[in-house]
């Protein structure tokens, strides 16, 4: 299995947080996943849910250091969707493949679904405006470099982005502690 | 140490960026200073939850893309209608005595615009493949039907084990009509319309050589061949077969073909420029 030049370009763009590339990938492979789920006893809603989870899994997998895609994006997305859907069906039914399927190893990604979610912190992050929201999510979730973030947010240099990032974490801590204080006094 | 430099120090610690000397000092403070320890834990929790927030943000973004796909394919008229309503509401608000005739005309125009938008949306949405997806249901094996095929290969189809069915089918030197017909269905499932067409046509040709009372899978193949033509983007050929089925009340698939289906095929034929 090889990765085409187009896919390599897309993978690079996805790693750099390029929204146009993400939209392109999402729109390109949706019909395939939709057809697969509907051929296998699922509804359109099931397909949407499954597809979005799979795209998120791909997006996060691309950011893990030791991960290198050895097949096409299409094949990988199909394999993730197939595995996830098979798990949901729990062996109730045999899968009907709509694409050539060669079993490829997909390790479960480091899924922070398993982490205890601190709703207050997530809300506090969600309520932060830019640049902090873009900076923190860009750095910690999208794993963009400080150079890329400086460029994106029009900062003079990576070190400005770095200092701003620390200020944002500091702000977030205060915001969170303030909320917690307010809730405990209500 | 200022708050900012402390935050920076903790961040560097959490990312494993402290050198040996700083790490030693950091660990020493961690062991003795409870407030500092809590601060480190808070920052660790915050950073972990940024991942969660990032995932929420990504999910919202994907949902937006999904909505765009739906709007692009279906071109719903809701925006047109709400847009018209706003214009209408504003214009009436400024008048103390609304002109009834004008209002009626405006409403009629809104209805026409809405219907046109729905029509255009549907026109844009329709394609041979979409009609195929709406109509196609894989053939379900009836156990009472006479068959010369060994039970094992048929059971593969019945169990939806299509990959193994195809492998067994391709390995077989002599293929029964039932096997060829079922292979046609599997090719349709796998979106290989060209091969599906070959299978269904072969069943029909073989049947034409047989006596009328020994016809097997002829009518089934006729219906599925029409569907295969749709999948193969040949709505004109599909239409001929569907019309034939519709004109024959005794045809087992007669109830599957209605005027609605034929109308949709006419529309896609027009779109594809294959109209007579």
UniProtKB/TrEMBL annotation, chain A:
Molecular function in Gene Ontology: DNA binding; sigma factor activity
Pfam family, one: Sigma70_r2
All residue ranges annotated as the RNA polymerase sigma-70 region domain in the record: 26-93
Entry keyword set: DNA-binding, Sigma factor, Transcription, Transcription regulation
BP GO terms, sorted: DNA-templated transcription initiation
Protein name as it appears in the record: Sigma-70 family RNA polymerase sigma factor
Lineage of origin: Bacteria, Pseudomonadati, Bacteroidota, Cytophagia, Cytophagales
NCBIfam families membership: sigma70-ECF
InterPro entries, per the entry: RNA_pol_sigma-70-like, RNA_pol_sigma-70_dom, RNA_pol_sigma70_r2, RNA_pol_sigma_r2
Origin species: Chryseosolibacter histidini
SUPFAM superfamilies documented for this protein: Sigma2 domain of RNA polymerase sigma factors
Automatic annotation (TrEMBL), chain B:
Origin: domain of life: Bacteria
Protein name: Tetratricopeptide repeat protein
SUPFAM superfamilies assigned to the protein according to its UniProt record, in alphabetical order: TPR-like (SSF48452)
InterPro entries in UniProt: TPR-like_helical_dom_sf (IPR011990)
Keywords linked to the UniProt accession: Membrane, Transmembrane, Transmembrane helix
Transmembrane segments annotated in the record for this chain: 104-125
Organism: Chryseosolibacter histidini
């Amino acid at each position: 299995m090889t990765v085409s030049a187009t896919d390599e370009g897309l993978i690079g763009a996805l790693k750099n947080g390029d929204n146009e590339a993400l939209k392109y990938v999402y729109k390109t492979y949706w019909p395939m996943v939709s057809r697969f789920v509907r051929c296998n006893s699922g509804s359109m809603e099931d397909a949407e849910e499954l597809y979005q989870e799979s795209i998120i899994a791909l997006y996060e997998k691309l950011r893990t250091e030791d991960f290198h895609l050895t097949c096409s994006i299409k094949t990988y997305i199909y394999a993730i969707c197939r595995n996830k859907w098979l798990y949901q069906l729990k062996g109730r039914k045999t899968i009907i493949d709509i694409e050539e399927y060669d079993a490829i190893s997909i390790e479960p990604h480091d899924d922070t679904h398993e982490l205890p979610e601190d709703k207050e912190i997530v809300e506090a992050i969600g309520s932060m405006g830019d640049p902090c929201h873009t900076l923190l999510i860009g750095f910690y979730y999208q794993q963009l470099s400080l150079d890329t973030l400086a460029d994106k947010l029009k900062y003079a240099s990576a070190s400005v982005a770095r200092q701003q990032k620390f200020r944002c974490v500091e702000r977030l801590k205060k915001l969170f502690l303030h909320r917690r204080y307010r809730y405990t006094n209500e | 140490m200022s708050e900012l430099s402390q935050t920076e120090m903790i961040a560097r610690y959490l990312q494993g960026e402290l050198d040996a000397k700083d790490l030693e000092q950091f660990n020493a403070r961690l062991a003795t200073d409870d407030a500092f320890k809590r601060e480190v834990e808070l920052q660790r929790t915050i950073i972990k939850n940024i991942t969660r927030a990032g995932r929420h943000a990504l999910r919202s973004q994907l949902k937006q893309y999904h909505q765009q796909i739906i709007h692009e394919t279906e071109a719903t008229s809701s925006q047109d209608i709400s847009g018209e309503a706003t214009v209408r509401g504003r214009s009436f608000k400024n008048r103390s005595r609304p002109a009834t005739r004008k209002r009626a005309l405006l409403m009629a125009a809104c209805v026409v615009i809405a219907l046109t938008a729905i029509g255009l949306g549907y026109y844009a949405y329709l394609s041979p493949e979409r009609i195929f997806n709406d109509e196609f249901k894989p053939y379900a094996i009836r156990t009472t039907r006479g068959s010369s095929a060994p039970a094992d290969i048929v059971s593969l189809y019945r169990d939806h084990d299509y990959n193994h069915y195809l492998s067994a089918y391709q390995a077989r030197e002599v293929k029964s009509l039932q096997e060829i017909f079922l292979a046609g269905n599997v090719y349709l499932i796998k979106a290989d319309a060209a091969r599906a067409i070959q299978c269904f046509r072969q069943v029909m040709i073989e049947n034409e050589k047989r006596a009328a009372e020994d016809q097997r899978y002829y009518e089934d193949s006729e219906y599925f061949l029409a569907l295969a033509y749709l999948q193969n983007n040949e709505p004109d050929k599909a239409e001929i077969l569907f019309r034939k089925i519709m004109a024959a009340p005794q045809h087992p698939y007669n109830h599957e073909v209605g005027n609605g289906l034929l109308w949709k095929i006419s529309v896609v034929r027009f779109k594809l420029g294959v109209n007579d």
